[in-house]
Amino acid sequence: MVRAHEEAKALALHLIVGSELRIESGPRLVALAQTREGYGNLSQLISRARRRAAKGQYRLLSQDLDGGLPDCLLLWLPDRDPAADPVQEQAETITHGRWLQERFPGRLWIGVVLHRRGGD
């Protein structure tokens, strides 16, 4: 992180700091720090999740985000499980979306990822 910050400063670029997170039994997110305080909040969140798990892993719980992660923007990356029941999956997606919207009003977007393969 320090090297990235130094290099961005040397090149007069704005560095966007973030992290991809997966809530245990919940949605996948990308959190982007807007300010230095947001970076601190994101770092604390990651540290808390890492302390809960074995080395090299993390365990992020939904209640970890009850405070809304101030000064961070969130991209929600809804997953699609081809083996899942479509009705159940839709209900879970709606539940996750409402839950996230309550905690991140005005700071939540849906991210879309298009993965290309060799035959596309």
Question: Can you give me a brief rundown of this structure?
Answer:
The chain is an alpha+beta fold. The chain has helices at residues 2-10, 36-51, 86-103, and strands at 17-22, 28-33, 72-76, 108-110. It is built from 3 helices and 4 strands.
Task: Give an overview in words.
There is one protein chain. The protein is α+β, with helices and mostly antiparallel strands. The chain contains three helices and four strands; from the N terminus they run αββαβαβ. It has a four-stranded mixed beta sheet, with helices on one face. Strand 3, helix 3 and strand 4 form a beta-alpha-beta unit. The longest helix has 18 residues. The protein is globular, with a radius of gyration of 16 Å. The mean pLDDT is 91.
Strand-helix topology:
Blueprint: H1 2-10, E1 17-22, E2 28-33, H2 36-51, E3 72-76, H3 86-103, E4 108-110
Parallel strand pairs: 3-4
Antiparallel strand pairs: 1-2, 2-3
